[in-house]
Amino acid sequence: MALKVKAVERKVKFSKTDEGVWRYVMSPELYIALSQAKVIKEAALRSGVSQGVMKACWDAAGEVIKAWATEGHSVALPGLGTMRFGLRAKSVENVNDVKTSLISTRRIIFTPNQDLKDELASTAIQITCYDRNGDVVKRVTSADAGTVEEPEGDDNGTQNGGTENQGGTENQGGTENQGGSENQGSSGDNGNGSDGLDMGG
Predict the structure, then answer these.
(1) What is the pLDDT of residues 58-93, one digit of tens each?
(2) Model's pTM, two decimal places?
(3) What's the pLDDT score for residue 152?
(4) Which residues, 6 or more positions from 187, have their beta carbon under 8 angstroms from its beta carbon?
(5) C-alpha–C-alpha distance, residues 193 and 190, integer Å
């Protein structure tokens, strides 16, 4: 089993006035989204219970997770890790200025368990390179160290007290962002560039 990644030659701009340079930009190749019915069917086959029983358990677990997470708990997701809600908000000096309008976004924070991180770290990555004309020019299987990015917060799901990203962009394709793309439209979660705290549940 391997993760498939594409490296596409694109013009990268480092400023709005920059003419740009051609770079190979990597991003994961996304597969089709698996439906809930397919996941339930596969889980039922692996567990030996009927699909009806599995669906009832699935639905009940989902309702419990939503209820507890919205009460401020960090909730275990069996075999995967934990999920909790958090938010991004501006910081203020005066307590009288604290109000809900300081909150810029509400967030869902997933913290994977060690088994899931180990599985990702040991999975091979196959890279297919496409030039600016869309032609395949190279295929390679990666030999990276398999380092998995640590989630925000510690293993108990508590927030790390870090400040909100102020102006930088987070590349959601999992690659290091070394400049804006030609369309300048793929910024990540930067909290609207505000000065604030990432406050987990």
Answers:
(1) 999 999 999 999 999 999 998 899 999 999 999 999
(2) 0.61
(3) 65
(4) 169
(5) 6
CA distance 151 to 142: 23
Antiparallel, parallel or unpaired: β 2-13 and 124-130: parallel
DSSP state of 81: E
pLDDT digits (tens, 9 = 90+) for 89-140: 999 999 999 999 999 999 999 999 999 999 999 999 999 999 999 999 999 9
Parse the chain into domains and list their residue ranges. 2-200
User: Which residue is listed with tokens 């340079």?
Assistant: 21
Question: What is the CA 96 to chain-centroid distance, rounded?
Answer: 35
**Angle formed at CA 142 by CA 137 and CA 147, multiple of 5 degrees:** 140
Domain at 2-200, CATH homologous superfamily: IHF-like DNA-binding proteins (4.10.520.10)
Token pair in block for residue 11: 């013009």
Q: Could you say which DSSP state residue 94 is in?
A: S
